[in-house]
Amino acid sequence: MTSQLVALCFDANDPLALARFWAGVLGWEMADDPRDGIALLPSDDTGFRIRCLPSQEKKIGPNQMHFDLTSTSLDDQRQTVARALRLGARHIDVGQRPEEDHVVLADPEGDEFCVIGPDNEFLADCGFVGALACDGSQEVGYFWSEALGWPLVWDQDQETAIRSPHGGPKITWGGPPVMPKTGKNRLHFDLAPPAHGDQQAEVDRLVSLGASRVDIGRRGVSHVVMADPDGNEFCVLPPLA
To answer: Which residue ranges does the record assign to the VOC domain (predicted)?
Structure first.
């Protein structure tokens, strides 16, 4: 048994505005969320939803993960950038070089994302959401491969990438140096055991792979908060109905 990646969750000061932004950029539908946020349902092969959750915390420093959006041509790339800017994105400088063919933007909450040029071979067989690019160690790439049952599609020079057997975006980790973690990540994964699975058994399995439980001081919630080997938080939900 392996966990299913149910959602990528964004902490947001204004969840509705952030959900509207990403719905407009990705062309996904907004839906009521079963917990306390707003959900976006994929209209492509992404395989997981986006959840925008309310948070009072302000963003400090770059996120540990960001979307890489693909382009079919230079004109397509320009159109994606223009659409994102219209919806409330802005250009940001993260040290990218002028000769690099990707455009770095931030959403209305400051969350970074990239619009990749059309000649990127690594994402050539991916859809519009080409990758979820993460700052992380080789060890954490191995952990998530085992946790999700997704095979490694890249493992060189301590850089790793995994992808669902059903397609969709790649999840990548850039290897060392890994950015020091400061506080709770604004983005995290929601996992769930398959239907009729056992939440506690899955938590125990993830601990055996290198995860740890995190005490957030909240009682009576149905999800279990955990951290991967790099200390990045994620949640294990009850089994899917």
So the answer is: 125-239
pTM: 0.94
DSSP secondary structure string for all residues of 23-49: HHHHTPEEEE-SSSSEEEE-SSS--SE
Contact criterion met (CB below 8 Å) for 26 and 107: no
Q: Which residue shows structure tokens 């509705």? A: 16
Residue whose tokens read 């060189």: 156
- Tell me the two tokens of residue 62: 């770059």
User: On the CB side of 50, how many CA atoms lie within 13 Å of its CA?
Assistant: 30
Helix ranges (H only) for the chain are: 15-26, 74-87, 138-148, 199-209
Digit-coded pLDDT (tens) for 165-213: 999 999 999 999 998 888 899 999 999 998 788 999 999 999 999 999 9
